[in-house]
Design goal:
About 30% of the residues are buried. By secondary structure, this protein is mostly helical. The chain has one domain (about 1-100, about 110-270). The protein has helices at about 1-5, 10-15, 15-25, 30-40, 40-60, 65-95, 115-140, 145-175, 180-185, 190-210, 210-235, 250-255, 255-285, and strands at about 235-240, 250. The mean pLDDT is about 85. The longest helix is centred in the middle third of the chain and has 32 residues, at about 145-175. The protein has a two-stranded antiparallel sheet with strand order 1-2. The chain has 13 helices and two strands.
């Protein structure tokens, strides 16, 4: 039932990862080279997790055996955790910054990634995605599974609130440059405010049983968190923690003006099309999940 709730949309959602990677490669090749060289290990773990996630979804329904399906359920769950933690780990390091030399090359090692801040961000990301997924399943399912998901959603919400609080406190105390932009430009304070309002609305809507609105608030939380991080690191694409002068910025990493114009044209046409298609799929498969002969 849970797999069929995401069945129509899970593969299409990965298109956004391709768009992001392609845009970074075409528009900011210096940043692409530095980021993917620095994050070689986390990126490979992330991709392996994505591959096994897809394999688990497709293979699970090939045999009716209970052990067979349980095995692929475990593989799927583990792959999702790996994908989420590696994504959070990379996001934390991008936000905090990495050691770079004057040639914009990563000078750290494997253990550079495993710092307290990035681990906190990874755990916060895991908690947020667990809550988001449980709310989505509560919105899409009925009966026993619905009841189970409502309990999990509330528990994961508590987990997220704890990790969000810990990560925010650590950021304010030990990563001061992440709050410089908002301090210098108060108009950007709207994004943290929007994020806090969305976070506060999640348990409120769950208490009312309005899981559709709770899901929207959860989605707004994710979007506002990403925007807040982008605002804080701007204009850097990768902050040099050892020497800010070595940071990779939008200006020193951008392609030629002609390339950027072509990329803008492609993005202007392609991104709305993907967005419209995604919205259409979600609209078409709205409502509660019903199992049939074509189900996973």
């Amino acid at each position: 039932m849970a797999l069929n709730a995401i069945g129509p949309v899970w593969d299409g959602n990965e298109v956004w990862l391709v768009i992001g990677g392609g845009a970074l490669f075409a528009g900011f090749p210096v940043a692409y080279a530095a980021i993917f060289s620095a994050f070689y290990l986390p990126v490979m773990i992330f991709l392996i997790g994505l591959i096994w996630r897809a394999v688990a979804i497709e293979f699970r329904s090939k045999e009716p055996g209970k052990i067979w399906r349980l095995t692929w359920d475990i593989v799927y769950s583990f792959a999702c955790i790996v994908v989420t933690l590696s994504l959070g780990l990379m996001l934390g390091n991008v936000a905090m910054g990495l050691p770079l030399n004057a040639q914009k090359e990563f000078t750290g090692n494997t253990f550079t990634f495993f710092n307290p801040f990035s681990i906190f961000v990874a755990l916060t990301t895991l908690a947020l995605f667990m809550m988001h997924g449980a709310i989505y399943l509560a919105m899409k399912t009925e009966n026993r599974l619905y009841t189970k998901m409502t309990v999990l959603a509330k528990n994961f919400n508590v987990f997220f609130l704890i990790m969000f609080g810990v990560t925010t406190l650590y950021t304010l105390l030990y990563i001061p440059h992440l709050s410089d932009t908002i301090k210098s430009k108060p108009q950007y304070f709207i994004f943290p405010v929007l994020m806090l309002l969305a976070i506060a609305n999640i348990p409120r809507q769950m208490k009312k049983g309005n899981y559709r609105y709770a899901f929207i608030s959860s989605a707004v939380t994710i979007a506002s968190l990403l925007i807040a991080v982008a605002v804080e690191v701007f204009p850097n694409l990768l902050y040099a923690s050892n020497d800010p002068a070595n940071s990779i910025t939008i200006a020193n990493a951008a392609s030629s003006p002609k390339t950027m114009k072509i990329l803008l044209l492609i993005a202007t046409i392609g991104t709305p099309l993907v967005g419209i298609y995604t919205a259409f799929v979600f609209w078409t498969f709205k409502g509660k999940v019903k199992l049939d002969d074509t189900s996973y």
